[in-house]
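Memo to structure team: turn this sequence into structure tokens by end of day. - J.P.
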Amino acid sequence: MKRYGIALFVLIAGVATFSISSLSEDLKPSKITRELTEKICKDTKSFAKENDDEELFEAYKRHCKADEPDLFGLLAAMYHLSIDLENSTKKRLKYYRATVDEIDKVIRENPQIVNNKPIFWLNRSVNELSGFSLDVEGQRIYSTGDSGTGPFIAMTDIKSKRSTRLTVQGAKNRDWEALAFDGKQTLWLLDVGDNKSEHKHIYFHAIDVNSITSKQIQVVKTLELKYPKGPMDVEAGFYYKGYIYLIEKKYYKKAHFVRVSIENKHPEVEDLGKLPMTGPITDAVVSSDGRLFVLHYYGLEEIKKWQTPEEASINIIANLRLGQVEALALVAPGIFWIGREDGAVYEYRMTKPH
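Reply from structure team:
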């Protein structure tokens, strides 16, 4: 990662924080920066079309066709494409890496980073934050950390933002990436992370949140499941009308979309097809009226017609410059909490929630 410079390290590692509101007038790109950005975007579009590079063209549409082109997002997308050695030609890899260096230079020479304080931090309660889930009363939010962080979850009061660390009894944290309430008092802890796509089984651990005693919470049931088309990496999961849905984590490729009926006595993973290409989805949440919102490293989006994946489409809500964001919760209509891996939690408000 060193060859790609300071700006890339800041973006991928999430060390710096970026504003999630519009840039103020004095921080908008200079004419020179704007011209360089337009050139990079134009070159990216040309290369993608000339080389039938569908993933790169998706990155171009996502980050260059916005009202304010997002170089940070394009940098991150290019970086992830540049390390996808199995699916890239030498010509593509050379172009990706050269463009990463070019974007990195522009960003370092024209710094426009805006410090925006988180509303609170979860780093004392959860290490390597990976998922959120709001309880059915809308009073507490539960969060988890991923592999290597131990059998812990955090319970945070929405109003006071005070957190309690809970030890989960009866389950091992192989790679807990998501949480999902089932509409009642059962919280499902989803052990679905698989960076190398090699695990034969995934595990859903059911927890009764009323069973908390002495900062401990007990698993009451575990489902061992298997994907119908082989292992895949998943970080996003959510509950809706009797099913837990999972979205594969892909970098500008169509993502597998599956679900599990947790009310079935013998549940199995049902393949639903593939969702449209976008960034690597790290968390997802459904609103009370059935709208699906997804979070990835570069933004917050709504997937329209998500229940029929072949008809689904992407609607960009916001370009987020927050680093490695991993957790998403809808705490009120149009109000999202967004968690970064290092435990920073931000609030984003939609201008038109409906």
